[in-house]
Amino acid sequence: FLMERKTRVKINRKEVMLAKLRKICSCNPKKLKNFVMDFLPVLRWLPKYQCKEYIWGDVMSGLVIGIILVPQAIAYSLLAGLKPIYSLYTSFFANIIYFLMGTSRHVSVGIFSLISLMVGQVVDRELLLAGFDLNDDAPPALRDGSLQNDSQSNTTAFNLTIAGMNAECGKECYAIGIATALTFVAGVYQVLMGIFRLGFVSMYLSESVLDGFATGASLTILTAQVKYLIGIKLPRSQGHGMLVITWINIFRNISQANLCDVITSAICIVVLVTAKELGDRYKHKLKFPLPTELVVIVVATLVSHYGKLNEMYASSVSGAIPTGFIPPKVPHFNLMLRVAVDALPLAIVSFVFTVSLSEMCAKKYAYTIRANQEMFAVGFCNIIPSFFHSFATSAALAKTLVKTSTGCQTQVSGVISAMVVLLVLLFLAPLFYSLQKCVLACIIIVSLRGALRKFQDVPARYHVNKVDTLVWVITMSASALISTEIGLLVGIIFSMLCIIVRTQRPRTTLLGQIQDTSFYEDDLEYENLSSVPKVKIFRFEAPLYYANRNYFLKSLYRLTNLDPNLEAARRKKYEKKEKQRLKKGDHTTANGLGIGETTLQLIPKQIDFQALVVDCSSISFLDTTGVNTLKEILKDYKNLNISVLLACCNPSVIDSLKRGGYFGKDFGSMEEMLFYSIHNAVQFAKDQK
Predict the structure, then answer these.
(1) Distance between CA atoms of 682 and 606, rounded to whole angstroms?
(2) Which SUPFAM superfamilies match (predicted)?
């Protein structure tokens, strides 16, 4: 039987588009109010803030995150190739802006290791092209907290005509100029993606790609910090293969290791790892995480200051961190042009990590977020701070988990964290002058434990899905051995190729009937299935389109043990020989058969079926090539007196077949060619003569 399809109401797309445009372009007080409240979600939830219920959790989580954020911000400045003051600016502004614009109550937005690494790679490349020395182990600045002295002590002035900047600018000035330009462009990309609703781009970053990218980048981060651990003065490696080149340089210069830094690093790593492991083991008993990083930084700074480790043992220290805020400055347009391409992967990675963490928290605590607004929030967390000497930000998993575990209820906790950072910016920053860089490197390396532990999950991942494991390995290897940006691109392309290959060579099988039922299953996978006499049931588990057409035909011919084209050619050849014999007056065939028996001889012995049922339940769509392929087998098998029946087609496949003329002009034969179940098709084939 044929089910009657619903008649679709024709939609005038022009009128719909005009109605949408009128709605968008119209303006009234109510709509303006909704627009402002949607753009600044804080205006919706802050008036409803339940102070007695939320304030304690928000204050506690804000203080804890602020205490963790300060040492991490100072440490991650090494990754970005910038001074610690800029990391503190970034952490401060990101928390304030996300408080105003974010829709997630729990996510922690700020400085993030992977984003800092991507920024640092661009900064290093541009510094190298501008002629600066990448050796960041220059003598420390004076203790007066002057940013100008800090910049001038790093390198001599350089006239930046290469970037269209006519003013004299030192290495530090040029580095933060590159970082702010990169951040501004990345933020613009994110806002444009939000305007044009391009959030679907994140769908192409699968979990395997993101995990592989994070692990590969973590190996790069770890490698970049080794020279600080052992006190070797090496320039920051740049370009493809940085990981291998850095390790070669480390082993070549291992004899120059600073014993003071090695001992300090060993002690700090032991203390940090032990504290982290104890914290993980007893996290249910602790009301808030132990501020181990802050304790280590305070103790290490005191020891370095009073032990005069820099003067006596030449241990590299952070140097002066100025207090207060530097006047805002517009990012240079010419620098934006230089980093426009680099900003695209930075924008995508920043957005994807933020949205994925926001959705995770929203699902856990039963509320909703708006992904498009998250795009705007992250975009403006990059655009606005870029005017205040800050660099790119993103949500960070570790700080988000700490935030939720310490009782966070709303983004008020982000404001508290920003106040802690502000306190450091205004008063406490100069106290970190004597802090050794090897201590900061230890904090960075220990923070990578989660990403590096992904190696332990490889056997379980392989057991679940071998293809996803291969995607993870390829992405991780490319990110570590080539570069992070290329690694991300390789991961996306390879994962998409895996999907294409899966559809190009899908599983194909013949089906058998489950005894005494009307159900049919894979004959190779299940026991005790009975074959249907004179009927072959073929299943193709993928869409049928131009890329897998040949595989479809080859699989069909192989499983049915019949190529209709070869069989038709054999028959024509045989008929031609018979006609030649008849012309010569021989009334018997080559096999000694009479003319009347020739027809029987033409029927090949290997054809043991009279109907072919194609199970279309796994065919999600057909393109023009797919429709023509089905029309081709319909014609070829018909020439051998074998009927082709389609079963379990979805409506879109049926529509494609109708448009392609598969059922004829008036669809009159549709009832004899299309069936809603395999069993119906089999019963019809059995009833045929």
Answers:
(1) 21
(2) SpoIIaa-like
Give residues with Cβ within 8 angstroms of 24, minimum separation 6: none
- Helix-helix angle 484-504:207-230, to 10 degrees: 150
- Collapse the DSSP code of 614 into the 3-class scheme (helix H, G, I; strand E, B; otherwise coil) and give the result: strand
For the chain, what is the mean pLDDT? 85
Cα torsion 414, 415, 420, 425 to 10°: value is: 110
- For residue 168, list its beta bridge partners: 159
pLDDT digits (tens, 9 = 90+) for 371-429: 889 999 999 999 999 999 999 999 988 888 888 877 889 999 999 999 999 999 998 88
Give CA–CA dist 186/178, Å, rounded: 12
Residue 446 near residue 269 (C-beta atoms within 8 A): yes
The whole-number average pLDDT for the span 485-510 is 92
Q: Are 171 and 155 in contact (CB under 8 A)?
A: yes
CB atoms under 10 Å from CB of 432, counted, come to 23
For β-strands 508-514 and 158-159, DSSP reports them as unpaired
Selection from 86, 673, 608, 647 nearest residue 387 by Cα: 86
Q: What is the DSSP letter of 207?
A: H
199 — phi, psi (to 5°)?
-65, -20
In DSSP terms, 643 is beta-bridged to 611
Amino acid letter, residue 548: N
End-to-end CA gap in the chain: 20
3-state secondary structure of 522: strand
Burial of 594 (0-12, 13-18, 19+ CB in 10 A): exposed
CB 536 within 8 A of CB 560: yes
Give SS3 for 137.
coil
Query: In this structure, is the dihedral angle defined by the CA atoms of residues 676, 679, 680 and 681, taken in order, positive or negative?
Result: positive
Distance CA 169, CA 162 (A): 12
pTM, entire model:
0.80
What count of Cα atoms within 13 Å lies in the side-chain half-sphere of residue 542?
21
Q: How many CA atoms lie less than 13 Å away from 670 in the CB half-sphere?
A: 18
DSSP 3-state assignment of 5?
Answer: coil
Residues 6+ apart with CB under 8 A from 429: 84, 85, 88, 145, 321, 322, 323
Instruction: Render pLDDT for 112-154 as a digit per residue (tens, 0 to 9).
Output: 888 999 999 899 889 988 888 776 544 444 334 344 444 443 4
Contact at 8 Å (CB) between 511 and 615? yes
518 backbone φψ class: left, alpha, beta (φ>0; ψ -120 to 50): alpha
Nearest to 626 by CA among 651, 654, 648, 645: 654
Taking only the tens place, the pLDDT of each residue in 230-276 is 988 887 777 788 889 889 999 998 999 999 999 999 999 999 899 88
Residue 297, pLDDT > 50, answer yes
Phi/psi at 521 (nearest 5 deg)?
A: -140, 175
Cα dihedral sign, 162-166-184-109: positive
Q: Which residues share a beta bridge with 535? A: 611
Contacts of residue 98, Cβ cutoff 8 Å, sequence gap at least 6: 107, 109, 377, 378, 381, 411, 414
Can you list the alpha helix ranges (DSSP code H) found in 196-241? 207-230
| CA separation for the pair 487, 211 (Å, rounded) | 12
User: What is the share, in percent, of the chain residues with pLDDT greater than 90?
Assistant: 46
Q: Under a CB-based contact definition with an 8 Å cutoff, are residues 431 and 77 in contact? A: no
- Residue ranges, CATH 3.30.750.24, the chain: 508-570+606-688
pLDDT of residue 141: 40
Helix 437-447 and helix 292-307, axial crossing angle in degrees, nearest 10: 160
How far is it, in rounded angstroms, from Cα 382 to Cα 619?
45
The answer for 126, left when phi > 0, alpha when psi is -120 to 50, beta otherwise, is alpha
Output the pLDDT for position 606. 59
Architecture of domain 508-570+606-688: 2-Layer Sandwich (3.30)
Tokens of 613: 């049922």
